[in-house]
Design brief:
Layout (H helix, E strand, L loop, with lengths): L10 H29 L10 H7 L2 H34 L5 H13 L2 H12 L4 H6 L14 H25 L3 H9 L4 H12 L1 H17 L2 H5 L9 H12 L4 H29 L19 H27 L16 H9 L1 H34 L2 H19 L2 H12 L14 H24 L4 H9 L4 H30 L15 H10 L3 H23 L15
Helix pairs in contact: 1-13, 1-16, 1-17, 1-18, 3-7, 3-10, 3-12, 4-7, 4-14, 5-14, 7-10, 8-9, 10-13, 12-13, 13-18, 14-23, 15-16, 15-23, 16-17, 16-19, 16-21, 16-22, 17-19, 19-21, 20-21, 21-23, 22-23
């Protein structure tokens, strides 16, 4: 067994560690540090909290902060309740068809939030083609049920419920079976087992799921904008977007302070979560095994029907409404044969230069970001998993910066990148602001944690003796990485890259402030169509995006046999 100090870093290995640590710091750490430095610079030039206090004194900021906290808290509570119930039903009982159910439960997480907002606004409004056909549409001129705090909270809950489901399901699968078996042998029935053993042990997972749902809702731009603006319910992300879109770079200092406020709330919540999880943690004895399959008996059919009906209500109605709207000649017409046309699809796929450019831009940026993140993750993961001492600490610091960049709302990172790249780069004299390059760099920084987590799951299954044997045999660092480690973790890296592609291909939060004419993305184009009143074109483009998302998710399924367990979220 090697000692922690064995095989000191030298040559190419040391250079690679320094290069990847500096690169991740430049991408993830420096922009946020610059954001805080510029935002908190006082009149005398030194750091001061007075600018932040002045920002907090603004009534519009106070109202937006309260709205953000209120909607995020309420939606996180509902998302935690729904996600936990679904995780318990699929993780502890003998419900059938678990694989397709998990796939469908996680689907909303992969669909862009602005598409979710558009689909639901078209599904429940007076002009809903599906409700009109069923004779259930609200009367013309009636208030739209989605454009309200209730509608906003419901959509945020549906969007982030899969996150809670994933976290709670992972917690359930880590349970040693001996605990449950001992309780059942002692005569404890399922409700008592759930209340006295399962839920107390799940407390850290429930807390993590709640905080993730809260933070995700706090930084969600698509739903907050498309639902909140008509409802006159402004949140911090929308306030940032409005001020920057209305006044341009001249208000960067102002929006930087609002972004800092949003970042402080986010990091504060994550810190509270870490502290509480230490108190709630229970030491478990025993290895995780196959999950329970409590026999529901006669209750199985009602439970299955409830789960399927819930998924149908949250997926089928908005999807049908979105597709029906995309086929309408004009939004609001009745759903009859004479109203249907494929012209909207022809317009976005073959005629509109902006949509074709957006598809090309998003595909190229997402694919390149996915490849870069896969390569970075393989390299950084090696130092995290195979090295000890100073090398692991340096790599761990870089990984922590990637986690923070992912946890902080995307709009905050966008402001940070604008501040960093607004002026030309030193020495090179090249400006990234207003180009696709700044969007690509932002994607790599924000989504690096997704790819790294997938690769680390694979690295944890690699025996360190393989690296030692290759080293003793005379293989240098790059040869070991290329011939030993990369082939072993490549399937997980590919799976992580596909997840990164899905996330960045559809996103609007990061690019909402970074795009410019000629550098549109799919997300910003759909948002601009809907915001500009081109509802049928927005629906058509959203339908194409949803179809592409489902196809890529099915492609990820094909990797299931070749990647470590847990690398694909919806596969066991």
């Amino acid at each position: 067994m090697r000692s922690p100090s064995a095989f000191a870093i030298a040559g190419g290995e040391g250079f690679s560690l320094a290069a990847v640590a500096v690169l991740v710091t430049l991408l993830c750490g420096v922009p946020l540090a610059l954001l805080f430095a510029i935002g908190l610079t006082g009149e005398g030039g030194g750091l001061s909290l007075s600018p932040l206090a002045d920002t907090l004194a603004s009534r519009s900021v106070q109202r937006a902060l309260w709205n953000s906290l209120e909607s995020s808290f309420l939606s996180a509570c509902l998302a935690t309740a729904l996600g936990t119930v679904l995780a318990l039903a699929l993780g502890l009982t003998n419900v059938r068809a678990k694989a397709p159910l998990v796939f469908l439960i996680l689907l909303p997480m992969m669909i862009p939030p602005h598409v979710t907002a558009i689909a639901w606004s078209q599904a429940l409004g007076p002009a809903s083609p599906v409700l009109q056909a069923l004779g259930l549409a609200p009367a013309a001129g009636a208030p739209h049920p989605v454009y309200s705090l209730t509608g906003l909270v419901a959509l945020l809950s549906f969007q982030h419920m899969p996150i809670v489901f994933l976290v709670v399901r992972a917690g359930l699968r880590a349970f040693p079976r001996e605990l449950s078996d001992a309780a059942r042998v002692s005569g404890a029935r399922a409700p008592r087992l759930l209340w006295r053993i399962t839920l107390p042990l799940l407390a850290p997972s429930l807390l993590a799921g709640f905080v993730l749902a809260f933070v995700s809702a706090l930084g969600n731009f698509g739903i907050n904008a498309l639902i909140g603006i008509p409802a006159r319910y402004t949140t911090l992300p929308v306030l940032i977007w409005r001020r920057l879109a209305g006044y341009g770079p001249s208000v960067l200092g102002d929006v930087a302070l609002i972004s800092i406020l949003l970042g402080i709330v986010t990091l504060g919540l994550v810190g509270i979560q870490v502290l509480l999880q230490r108190r709630l943690r229970n030491a478990l004895v025993g290895l995780p095994q196959q999950p329970l399959a409590v026999d529901l008996g006669r209750a199985r059919l009602p439970v299955e029907a409830t789960v399927w009906l819930l998924l149908a209500a949250t997926l089928l109605l908005p999807a049908l409404s979105l597709f029906a709207t995309s086929l309408m000649r004009t939004y609001g017409l009745p759903l009859v044969a004479s109203s249907l046309t494929l012209e909207n699809y022809a317009e976005i796929l073959f005629r509109q230069a902006v949509t074709l450019r957006a598809f090309a831009n998003s595909t190229a940026a997402a694919a390149l970001a996915a490849l870069l993140i896969a390569a970075l993750s393989i390299l950084l993961g090696y130092f995290l998993a195979m090295r000890r001492g100073a090398a692991r600490r340096i790599a761990g610091l870089a990984a922590a910066q990637a986690d923070v960049a992912y946890a902080v709302p995307g709009l905050v990172m966008s402001i940070a990148f604008i501040l960093m790249f607004l002026r030309p780069l030193p020495v090179l004299g090249v400006s990234l602001y207003g180009t696709m390059a700044i969007i690509l760099v932002a994607y790599v920084a924000v989504f690096l944690a997704i790819g790294l987590n997938a690769v680390m799951a694979a690295y944890m299954q690699v025996d360190a003796s393989l690296d030692d044997a290759a080293r003793v045999s005379g293989a240098g660092f790059f040869r070991r990485l290329y011939r030993v480690h990369a082939p072993l973790v490549a399937p997980a890296a590919a799976s992580g890259a596909i997840l990164v592609f899905l996330t960045s291909y559809n996103e609007v939060t990061v690019s909402a402030l970074l795009w410019s004419a000629g550098n549109e993305t799919i997300g910003t184009t759909i948002f601009n169509y809907e915001d500009g009143g081109y509802t049928t074109l927005a629906a058509a483009m959203s339908s194409v995006t949803v179809a592409a998302t489902v196809l890529v998710m099915l492609a990820v399924n094909a990797l299931a046999r070749h990647v470590p367990a847990g690398a694909i979220p919806w596969k066991d």
